[in-house]
């Protein structure tokens, strides 16, 4: 059986169920790299030039972890998933860049996803990818339809049940229904909520963000993430803030930020990677919006491989203390 | 309505000519200087690239002079450029300037978008007038770039260092003053003649270094600390394919007709980079492959945190076509002594390589 490797980094968090269903539908076995560790990060960053952003370094580390474990590595070049909205250069150059910096990697399966070129081109690209596994075009068609269904189900699971991608993936892969570890349905009325915004590859990679979400949950905060919102809510917020999206993954940042700043959460934490082109601007837009509203506290955390755990924890504690004090003052006023 | 715009190299000269001919009320902010940089750095998001910071500084300085309509290039591409105007407008508003930013759509509507915008700025001047003014602006641009090409050749071989630069500065002034085609032509021919008559070291065989990388830092000498002049002082001939006049020629006129000057470069890059990654990343890789045999070395200029150039830099180091590349990242932290040291070391390396190559040739 052909083994297809999927690095547990970057777009894994958005599309893993879809990719898995697709390749399994074509009769391949899917191998995922282990969760990020310091060794993975270091091996990745040793390959690329210093100013490459953290998520890409992590990605290279995951590809290195897959060397020898699989026959192919799947690295799509996603240019655009919505008309006239483009993606960051690093996603586009990812297959070529990986090939250049990791010459020993297994052959790379790349596919150009560009909605602007029309549906026909897109289907052609998917078909071309599928043909590497089977000669039967109907099988490719079936696999891609199943994959799309899996993707929709995955997204729905996250927005309806308030699950994070890791929880949703866990739920999809286990046939028996597993209840999420944290009771997310009905928060206790006085439980404070913190929204964490940013790209999923930063939010859910517990190694590079120093278990931020876990820490917040331990401090008894209810954590909200961008995936828990519906597309309409996100788009509405984007229109309010800047008129229209420019980047492919703008919803996770500007959309979610704009929504949570006005939806009565107790605080919003934005996470970005140092040197991230799109984030440097999007975070600024959210920042300015927060400063203008003056209702919800906002903190931005910039991550890179030199970020120290103590620094993140200190800032988090200070931020939570501030929220706690603010909440107490408000309660007193009510009394 | 008072129009202002950011600087990029000598781009202000053709725009000035255009505005004067159409009687547009305009202000030119002072040429990019240390204050521009400080202003830009102070009010920009920290992770932004140097083109954003400098253009923001320019816009603030224009707004200080009373400009209320600011031109800013934009375009939907993969680079951050398309987001610049939106953010800069918010920053200017937060600073209390009530200025409107007019986007110069450089990637979608090409020539028409540009002409329509000029029409709007000129209070609906007749098309005939707009087109003649536009042509005159282009003529100035072409004259500037023609002279600059000669300057690039003269700089490394002139006997008295700095002569070409002095002549170039005078030529820029004269072109700026010229207000009809005849004068313009006379100025162009006159200065090219003078440049050709500069006493030169006839035996010198200067090293040839190509300058590649991101558009803005290539064309704005302030952002790259006058790297071309410095290389000239070290006796190196600089070759650069990026010129504003080339850009206008192709991007505005020939590309819509199906001629693409970059096809050759893209084709060269294909084995290493299969797709456009935005900005000038694809071209950087392509130029390295293409010029590996022709040049002695390449200087790759990129703004710090520039996304396409980082991808290009990662790929460039692994191409089969081998040529020394010095990548210089430009940002507000860059200092001239540091850059000069790196350039000198690089030129030493190139000289050494050439000596070794010549020796091998003699033995053969």
Quick tags:
heterodimer; A: 335 residues; alpha/beta; Rossmann fold; 2 domains; 4-stranded parallel β-sheet; 13 helices; 10 strands; 12% strand; globular; B: 364 residues; 3 domains; 3-stranded parallel β-sheet; 55% helix; 10% strand
Description:
The complex is a heterodimer of chains A (335) and B (364). Chain A has 335 residues and is α/β, with parallel strands linked by helices. Chain A has 2 domains: 3-159, Rossmann fold (3-Layer(aba) Sandwich), CATH 3.40.50; 190-334, Rossmann fold. Chain A contains 13 helices and 10 strands. A 4-stranded parallel beta sheet of chain A has the order 2-1-3-5, with helices on one face. In chain A, strand 9 (267-273), helix 12 and strand 10 form a beta-alpha-beta unit. The radius of gyration of chain A is 20 Å and the shape is globular. The termini of chain A are far apart. Chain B has 364 residues and is an alpha/beta fold. Chain B has 15 helices and 7 strands. In chain B, strand 6, helix 14 and strand 7 (325-330) form a beta-alpha-beta unit. The chains are: A alpha/beta (335), B alpha/beta (364). The interface between A and B is large, with 42 and 40 residues.
Distance between the ends of chain B? 70 Å
Gyration radius of chain B (Cα, Å) is 21 Å
Strand content of chain A: 5-15%
How many domains, in number, for the residues of chain A?
Answer: 2
Choose one word for the global shape of chain A: globular
Class by SSE composition of chain A = alpha/beta
Could you please say which CATH topology of the largest domain in chain B applies here?
Rossmann fold
DSSP summary: helix tally of chain A: 13
Write the layout of secondary structure elements.
The complex is a heterodimer of chains A (335) and B (364).
Chain A: E1 3-6, H1 12-25, E2 29-32, H2 38-45, H3 54-66, E3 72-74, E4 77-80, H4 89-101, E5 108-109, E6 112-114, H5 119-130, H6 137-161, H7 165-173, E7 193-197, H8 200-203, H9 212-218, E8 222-224, H10 231-242, H11 251-262, E9 267-273, H12 277-293, E10 298-303, H13 309-334
Helix pairs in contact in A: 1-6, 1-7, 2-3, 10-11, 11-12
Chain B: E1 3-4, H1 12-21, H2 34-43, H3 50-64, E2 69-74, H4 81-94, E3 100-105, H5 110-121, H6 127-154, H7 163-177, H8 181-197, E4 207-213, H9 215-219, H10 227-233, E5 236-239, H11 244-254, H12 263-269, H13 281-291, E6 297-303, H14 307-316, E7 325-330, H15 336-363
Parallel strand pairs in B: 1-2, 2-3, 4-5, 4-6, 6-7
Helix pairs in contact in B: 1-6, 2-3, 3-4, 6-7, 6-8, 7-8, 12-13, 13-14
């Amino acid at each position: 059986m052909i083994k297809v490797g999927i690095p547990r980094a970057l777009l894994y968090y958005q599309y893993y169920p879809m990719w898995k269903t697709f390749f399994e539908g074509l009769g391949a076995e899917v191998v995922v790299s282990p969760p990020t560790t310091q060794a993975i990060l270091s091996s990745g960053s040793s390959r690329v030039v210093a100013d490459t952003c953290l998520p890409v370094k992590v990605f290279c580390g995951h590809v290195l972890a897959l060397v020898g474990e699989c026959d192919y590595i799947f690295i799509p070049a996603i240019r655009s998933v919505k008309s006239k909205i483009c993606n960051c250069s690093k996603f586009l150059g990812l297959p070529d860049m990986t090939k250049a910096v990791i010459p020993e990697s297994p052959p790379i399966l790349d596919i150009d996803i560009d909605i602007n070129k029309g549906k026909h081109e897109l289907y052609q690209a998917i078909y071309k990818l599928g043909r590497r596994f089977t000669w039967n075009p109907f099988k490719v068609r079936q696999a891609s339809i199943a994959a799309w269904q899996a993707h929709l189900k995955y997204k729905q699971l996250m927005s309806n049940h308030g699950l994070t991608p890791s929880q949703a993936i866990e739920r999809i892969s286990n046939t028996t229904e597993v209840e999420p570890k944290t009771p997310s349905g009905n928060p206790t009325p006085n439980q404070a909520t913190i929204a964490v915004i940013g790209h999923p590859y930063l939010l859910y990679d517990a190694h590079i963000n120093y278990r931020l979400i876990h820490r917040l949950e331990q401090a008894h905060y209810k954590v909200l993430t961008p995936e828990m919102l519906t597309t309409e809510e996100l788009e509405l917020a984007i229109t309010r803030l800047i008129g229209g999206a420019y980047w492919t993954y703008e919803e996770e940042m500007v959309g979610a930020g704009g929504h949570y700043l006005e939806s009565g959460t107790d605080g919003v934490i934005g996470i970005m990677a140092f040197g991230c082109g799109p984030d440097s601007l999007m975070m600024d837009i959210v920042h300015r919006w927060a400063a203008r509203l003056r209702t919800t506290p906002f903190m931005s955390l910039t991550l890179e491989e030199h970020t120290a755990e103590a620094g993140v924890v200190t800032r988090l504690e200070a931020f939570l203390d501030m929220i706690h004090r603010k909440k107490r003052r408000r309660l007193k006023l009510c009394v | 309505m008072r129009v202002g715009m950011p600087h990029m190299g000598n781009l202000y000269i053709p725009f000035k000519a255009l505005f004067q001919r159409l009687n547009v009320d305009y202000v030119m902010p002072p040429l990019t200087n240390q204050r521009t940089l400080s202003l830009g750095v102070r009010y920009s998001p920290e992770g932004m690239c140097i083109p954003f910071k400098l253009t923001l500084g320019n816009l603030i300085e224009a707004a200080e002079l009373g400009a209320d309509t600011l031109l800013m290039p934009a375009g939907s591409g993969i680079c951050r450029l398309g987001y610049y105007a939106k953010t800069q407008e918010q920053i200017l508003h937060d600073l209390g300037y009530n200025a409107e930013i007019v986007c110069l759509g450089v990637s979608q509507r090409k020539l028409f978008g540009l002409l329509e915008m000029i029409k709007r700025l000129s209070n609906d001047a007749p098309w005939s007038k707009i087109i003649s003014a536009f042509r005159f602006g282009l003529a100035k641009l072409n004259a500037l770039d023609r002279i600059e090409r000669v300057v690039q050749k003269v700089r490394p071989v002139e006997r008295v260092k700095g002569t070409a630069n002095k002549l170039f500065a005078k030529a820029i002034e004269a072109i700026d003053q010229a207000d009809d085609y005849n004068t313009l032509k006379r100025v162009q021919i006159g200065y090219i003649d003078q440049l050709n008559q500069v006493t030169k070291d006839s035996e010198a065989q200067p090293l040839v270094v190509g300058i590649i990388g991101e558009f803005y830092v290539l064309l704005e000498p302030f952002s790259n600390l006058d790297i071309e002049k410095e290389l000239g002082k070290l006796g190196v001939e600089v070759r650069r394919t990026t010129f504003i006049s080339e850009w206008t020629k192709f991007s505005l006129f020939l590309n819509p007709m199906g001629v693409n000057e970059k096809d050759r470069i893209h084709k060269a890059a294909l084995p290493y980079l299969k797709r456009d990654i935005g900005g000038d990343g694809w071209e950087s890789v392509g130029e390295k492959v293409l010029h590996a045999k022709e040049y002695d070395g390449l200087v790759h200029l990129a703004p710090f945190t520039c996304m396409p150039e980082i991808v290009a830099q990662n790929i460039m180091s692994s191409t089969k076509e081998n040529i020394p590349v010095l990548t210089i990242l430009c940002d507000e932290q860059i200092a001239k002594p540091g850059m000069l040291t790196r350039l000198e070391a690089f030129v030493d390396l190139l000289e050494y390589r050439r000596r070794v190559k010549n020796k091998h040739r003699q033995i053969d």
